[in-house]
Amino acid sequence: MQDCLFCKIVNKEIPSSIVYEDGEILAFKDINPVAPVHILVIPKRHISSLVDLKEEDETIIGKIYGVINKIAKQEKIAEDGFRVIVNCGENGGQEVKHLHFHLIGGKKLSTKICN
Ligand code: 5GP
Ligand code: ZN
Fold it and tell me: Ligand 1 — pocket residues by CB below 6 A?
C-alpha cells in the first residue's frame, strides 16, 4: 500500500534491521526500543489493524505467533519471559496503520498491563 511506512519497510524502500523474514512475515528491530529486545513482527501483506482482519487473515495470525516463538528463542528471551503487544486504533495508541506485533523483552517489564 502506498504511503504505508511498514509496506515501505517490507519492500526495502526504507532500511530496517531485519531479524526474520519469510514469504509472508517480516520481523525487524523497532527504531525506538523500549527494552533491550524490541522487535516488530508484521504480515507482509497490508492489513491496517486488528479490527480490519478478515476471516482469511486468521491463518497468518497463527503463523505470526509461531514466528514470535522462534524469535524469542533466537533472541534468548524465551526462558526469562517477554511481552507481546498489539496496539489498535486511536485509544489503543496505534501510530502505524499496518498491523504489527511488538515483541518486548530482555528486562523485567514494569507493569502487567498499561493504563
Ligand atoms: P504503534 O505505536 O503503532 O503500536 O507502534 C509503532 C512502532 O513503530 C513504534 O514503536 C515506533 O518506534 C516504530 N517505528 C516507527 N517508525 C519506524 C521506522 O521507520 N522503523 C522502525 N524500525 N520502527 C519504526
Ligand atoms: Zn502497510
Answer: 5, 14, 16, 28-32, 40, 87, 93-96
**Residue 32 Cα to ligand 1 middle (Å):** 7
pLDDT digits (tens, 9 = 90+) for 79-104: 999 999 999 999 999 999 999 999 99
Question: What is the set of domains in the chain, with CATH numbers?
Answer: 5-105 (3.30.428.10)
Active site residue 102: no
Q: Could you report the per-residue pLDDT of 18-49, keeping only the tens digit for each?
A: 999 999 999 999 999 999 999 999 999 999 99
Buried b (16+ CB within 10 A) or exposed e, 67-98: bbeebbeebebeeeebeeeebeeeeeebeebb
